[in-house]
């Protein structure tokens, strides 16, 4: 009696393309022919494992040594690392983790609550004033695609009619990049002021949790730098 040979079915994998960004501590991972976040025009950024409570994928990424923040987009993700971590070690770990997560599909990338929140934000746009609608349209059609190409994103946070100030939140590679202020002034602010006379300036804002995380990472990096600069103990 012959035993039937078991057929080995190869595991389906996700192909990733990795792109450098203007920020040397951030890499953009694009999933080829595969979706990550099931919302076409929405990205979600997480600056700590606690902040990532609504994203099982982001929580897993924060378990990798050296991950500073994670941004998940429709077909890409951007990972920011700490200064002392080498991409040669972290990059393959990110690719393997995300590939396994997306192919096994044991958990959603982000929770249903977070997706519904994004959908509510989109629905609220129906009540925007004419000026706010123009600001959002420019951000969405002219500015956001260029920022996403660099592994970042931009989120509209408000408009002060009295001062003509547009408040935005930069995400991903752009937020922690040394060129973020140049992007804000020479790119975003210049374009909005050119097309919309009511706009006088643009300001970037951070959520309270992000300010705390930023100070903590700055303290951590300062301590690591101090250790490297300290001479070894004499015998």
Automatic annotation (TrEMBL):
Signal peptide: none annotated. GO terms for molecular function: iron ion binding; iron-sulfur cluster binding. GO terms for biological process: iron-sulfur cluster assembly. Residues 16-105 form the Scaffold protein Nfu/NifU N-terminal domain. Coiled coil: none annotated. It holds the Pfam family Nfu_N. InterPro entries: FSCA_dom_sf, Nfu/NifU_N, Nfu/NifU_N_sf, NFU1-like, NIF_FeS_clus_asmbl_NifU_C. It comes from the Eukaryota. One of its GO terms (cellular component) is mitochondrion. Belongs to the NifU family. This is Scaffold protein Nfu/NifU N-terminal domain-containing protein. It comes from Diutina rugosa (Yeast).
């Amino acid at each position: 009696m012959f035993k039937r040979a078991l057929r080995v079915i190869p595991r389906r994998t996700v192909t990733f393309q990795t792109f450098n960004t203007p920020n040397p501590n951030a890499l953009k991972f694009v999933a080829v022919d595969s979706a990550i976040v099931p919302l076409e025009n929405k990205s979600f950024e997480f600056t700590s494992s606690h902040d990532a409570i609504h994203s099982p994928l982001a929580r897993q990424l924060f378990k990798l040594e050296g991950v500073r923040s994670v941004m998940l987009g429709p077909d890409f993700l951007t990972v920011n690392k700490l200064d002392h971590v080498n991409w040669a070690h972290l990059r393959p770990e990110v690719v393997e983790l995300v590939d396994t997560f997306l192919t096994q599909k044991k958990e959603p990338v982000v929770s249903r609550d977070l997706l519904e929140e994004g959908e509510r934000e989109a629905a609220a746009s129906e009540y925007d004033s004419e000026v706010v609608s123009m600001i959002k349209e420019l951000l969405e059609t002219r500015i956001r695609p260029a920022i996403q190409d660099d592994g970042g994103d931009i989120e509209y946070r408000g408009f002060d009619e009295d001062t003509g100030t547009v408040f935005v939140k930069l995400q991903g590679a752009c937020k922690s990049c040394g060129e973020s202020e140049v992007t804000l002034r020479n790119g975003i602010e210049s374009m909005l002021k050119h097309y919309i006379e009511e706009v006088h300036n643009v300001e970037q804002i951070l959520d309270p949790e992000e300010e705390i995380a930023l100070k903590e990472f700055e303290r951590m990096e300062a301590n690591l730098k101090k250790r490297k600069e300290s001479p070894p103990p004499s015998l």
